[in-house]
Design a protein that fits this description.
Shape: globular
Distance between the termini: 42 Å
Number of domains: 1
Number of strands: 2
Order of helices and strands: HHHEE
Radius of gyration: 13 Å
CATH architecture: Orthogonal Bundle
Oligomer: single chain
Largest sheet: 2 strands, antiparallel
CATH topology: Arc Repressor Mutant, subunit A
Structural class: mainly alpha
CATH class: Mainly Alpha
């Protein structure tokens, strides 16, 4: 599995659980290990997605990985 494929799978996993369950980094790592990726590869993929702004860490009630929320005032209508 390439880095891009792993990143896409991680993003899809987080997107699928959005609003249902907050995924911890370890949850993501365990799910990707079941797909054949190592813990180091998963950590690197998470880092790229977070550094790129596609995913963010949230700290409410423990560390979780989420898709960034878009606030109503963040995108003013023209």
């Amino acid at each position: 599995m390439t880095e891009e494929e792993l990143q896409a799978k991680v993003y899809a996993l987080v997107e699928k659980s959005q609003g249902k369950k907050k995924l911890k980094p370890k949850d993501i790592s365990n799910a990707m290990e079941a797909e054949g990726a190592t813990q180091a590869e998963t950590k690197a993929a998470l880092r790229v997605l977070i550094d790129g702004g596609k995913l963010v860490y949230s700290y409410f009630g423990g560390t979780a990985v989420e898709i960034p929320h878009t606030e109503g005032s963040a995108n003013p209508q023209s």
